[in-house]
Structures are given as structure tokens and as C-alpha cells.
Amino acid sequence: MLHKTRGIVFKFFKYRDTSIIVKVLTEKLGLQTYVVNGVRSKNAKSKIALYQPLTLLEMVVYFKEGAEMHRISEVRCMEPYRSVPYEVMKSSIGVFLAEVLFKSIKEEGEIPELFSFIHDSMMIFDHLDTGFENFHLQFLLKLTRYLGFGIENAFDQNAIGGDTTIGRLLNASYDDHVSLTHKDRREALETIIRFYGTHIEAFGHLRSLKILQEIL
Description:
de novo design (two linked rop proteins), 2 domains, five-stranded mixed β-barrel, globular
């Protein structure tokens, strides 16, 4: 059966000589796996750039209940980013968040609120010209609410009060300027990653973390 849906790319893997397997969070079907044939060949009709992490897609896809992998009938970039792929700091944050999302979200089925949160957050991130060095921290804190283990519930009121780094980030919007030192930012990220690790089975090591720490 064919379905029209929006999608957000999480990750792709090389498959055979010219193809890829891509993990996409779809608005109507949840997390799905697609085989895209020939996309790595010189004469490919579909460009591999469409499947870079966090690309926002508009798709027509085949779906068969119980199948492990599906195919894409039509695909186009829904909303091209103007800055995320082109600025080193933003692209590094994006790659890191895509890895966390890939490890955190496994659900199939319609998930409009989670999809909208990720989509809207990325649109805000793309349009922030300054003050986005804390975006990944705020995003991960907000995401816990949609994953069912909201971080604000894990601390007593004193721990997330306005004087703590986590508390300040929780209470701020993406475009609020929260002044943090490099040390504060690193410690907050370590706290958040540990929190994810205790709630997500096989969360494991984040390959992109080292690069992110070097840049921020």
C-alpha cells in the first residue's frame, strides 16, 4: 500500500555496490527502514544528499505490515536547510543529534507530536544565527518528555532550580541566551547522556560525541 508522509532521516548504511539502507522517522508510520537502489551510482536518479542525517523529506512510500524493509516510490526535500549542513558547528550538532535520535527512537506507527517536535526544533535551529551553542542540550532535555522519561521528573525541585545548569536550560526557549562556560556545557551534556543511558536499553557509546566536544 502507498502512503504519503513527511520524513526525517536518521541514518543510512551502504548496501551492496550502489545502494543504501536508510532509517527514516516518518510522521504517519513511525521509524521505518527503506532500501534505496542505485543511489550511489553515477547515473542515479535520486541523489544521496537526500539521505543525509536530519534531512526533511516529503515521501510516497510502500508499506507492508510485518515487512522489515520497505521501498520509496517518490521523494523530495521538503524544506532545505539554509545553514545546518554548511556551518561546521551546526553540522556537528546535527550529526550528534541524529545519532542520539537513531539510538533513542524505535517506535512504528503514527507519532505526530514527536515528529512535529523534531521538525519544528530543527527549523528553529536552522534559522538561529547566533546563540545556538546550547541547542543540543535544550533539544535533548525537551526530547525526554516525548520519549516518556521527562528529565524534570528525575530531579527534585532543588536539583532543577533556576541556579543549576540543567534547570536554566529546561526553563529556556531555544532563542533565549543561557550563558554557560565550556566546563558547564560539557558537564551538562555528560549528565544528559548518562540519563539517556539509564533509560534506553543498549544506548551505548556515541561516536559523534568526541567531535562535538572538540568543536564546542
